[in-house]
Amino acid sequence: MRILLASSHIDDDRSLIGFLLVMALSGLVVGALGRLLVPGRQPMGILATILAGVAGSVVGGFIARLIFGPEYVPGLIVGALGAALLIWAIYGTNRRHA
């Protein structure tokens, strides 16, 4: 019985690591698409891009569900638009006008 419990714990750890890797990779893709949608240069590193992508997916999904109803399942485009909105809100409004 103890061997089975240890084995299931290892599987849980692997699934968590896999989940985090998928979240980071999808966040990177969505964040990069969001950065492409915002004009100009954004001084962001790869970690900030990943975080903007993950947060943008959440924000975009929330806004899309408010607009289209609870049955709507957001996708890549909505996530990229949400990431672009966040990137614009952070970097687009802080530009100096010379």
The biggest beta sheet reads: none
Q: What sort of overall outline do the alpha carbons produce when their principal axes are compared?
A: flat
Number of strands: 0
Number of domains: 1
Stretches with pLDDT under 50, minimum 5 residues:
none
Distance between the termini: 70 Å
Helical coverage, percent range: over 70%
Mean residue pLDDT: 81
| Rg value | 18 Å
Which structural class is indicated by helix and strand composition? mainly alpha
Please state roughly what percent of the residues sit in beta strands, choosing from under 5%, 5-15%, 15-25%, 25-35%, 35-45% or over 45%: under 5%
Please render the helix and strand layout as text.
Layout: H1 2-37, H2 46-68, H3 76-92
Helix pairs in contact: 1-2, 1-3, 2-3
Q: Can you walk me through this structure?
A:
With 98 residues, the chain is mainly alpha-helical. It has one domain. Helix content is 78%, strand content 0%. Helix 1 (2-37) crosses helix 2, helix 1 (2-37) crosses helix 3 and helix 2 (46-68) crosses helix 3 (76-92). The radius of gyration is 18 Å and the shape is flat. The model has no long low-confidence stretch (mean pLDDT 81).
Can you give keywords for this protein?
mainly alpha; about 100 residues; flat; about 0% strand
Provide a short characterization of the protein structure.
The protein has 3 helices and no strands.
